[in-house]
Design brief:
Layout (H helix, E strand, L loop, with lengths): L1 H20 L12 H18 L6 E5 L2 E7 H4 L13 H12 L4 E8 L6 H21 L7 E5 L12 H7 L1 E8 L3 H5 L7 H4 L12 E2 L17
Parallel strand pairs: 3-4
Antiparallel strand pairs: 1-2, 2-5, 3-5, 4-6
Keywords: Membrane, Signal
Organism: Pseudomonas mangrovi
Protein name: OmpA-like domain-containing protein
Length: 229
């Protein structure tokens, strides 16, 4: 009889032990509510537009982010493909200074390449170009927890690579301004190519995780003087 009375207690203890042993799933950062996102975008869109005026860069507003597109042919030296042209330092520095004092803002810098040449070489080049632009933002004072970079190679083209014009559009660096608390959710979208894009790439190499900008000694951005015509 005593055993029967004790049985419910044992069952309850067993259930409690099972619940406590379950792994707690990590929380995935959520994008801010639409009304918050729109207010933030309304504030920064005209400021970013002013910062890049006359640079040849493009500004797009997409859902919860502002996207600045820097064409590689305008941004990097032709002879040293990951070296910034001096003309780009102004607009990049203005963007960095614009957001540096606002702890709400995070920056994701993505390097892209066209599909000509070896796949891994394109990925390495896109990563080097993203690092060169990241250096400007780091020198302007952005902390490591607000600045991420990634090279995605040719995995995410803007246009088909079957024409000179299309390949030029695909060679680019994108500077994405977003809320700092959504950076992790945002970078997860770029760590793997989408199925449609992956199908066009022959045996893609495994991607590396997003690299936070290192906050050690401040590097000198790689620039080169424009050649005389």
């Amino acid at each position: 009889m005593t055993l029967l009375k004790s049985l419910p207690l044992f069952v309850c203890l067993g259930l409690l032990a099972a619940c406590s042993s379950r792994e707690v799933e990590p929380e995935v950062p959520q994008m801010p509510p639409p009304e918050v996102s729109q207010a933030w975008l309304d504030e920064y869109e005209p400021k970013v537009k002013e910062a890049i005026v006359g640079s040849g860069f493009e500004l797009e507003r997409k859902e919860n982010v502002l996207l600045v597109i820097a064409p590689a042919d305008l941004t990097f030296n032709k002879d040293r493909p990951s070296m910034l042209m001096p003309s780009t330092l102004g607009p990049f520095s203005k963007m960095a200074k614009l957001v540096e004092a606002d702890e709400r803002v995070g920056i994701l810098i993505l390097g892209h390449a066209d599909s000509s040449g070896a796949y891994q070489l394109n990925r390495d080049l896109s990563r080097d170009r993203a690092a060169s632009v990241t250096a400007i933002f780091r020198l302007s004072g952005l902390k490591q927890d607000r600045l991420l970079r990634q090279g995605v190679g040719s995995d995410m083209p803007r246009a088909a690579n079957d024409s000179k014009e299309g390949r030029a559009l695909n060679r680019r660096v994108e500077i994405i301004l977003t809320r700092k608390d959504t950076l992790v959710a945002l970078i997860s979208q770029y760590n793997r190519p989408s199925p449609a894009v992956a199908a066009t790439v022959a045996v893609p190499a495994p991607d590396k995780p997003a690299e936070p900008a290192k906050s050690t000694a401040k590097p000198t951005p790689r620039v080169v003087a424009a050649k005389e015509q």
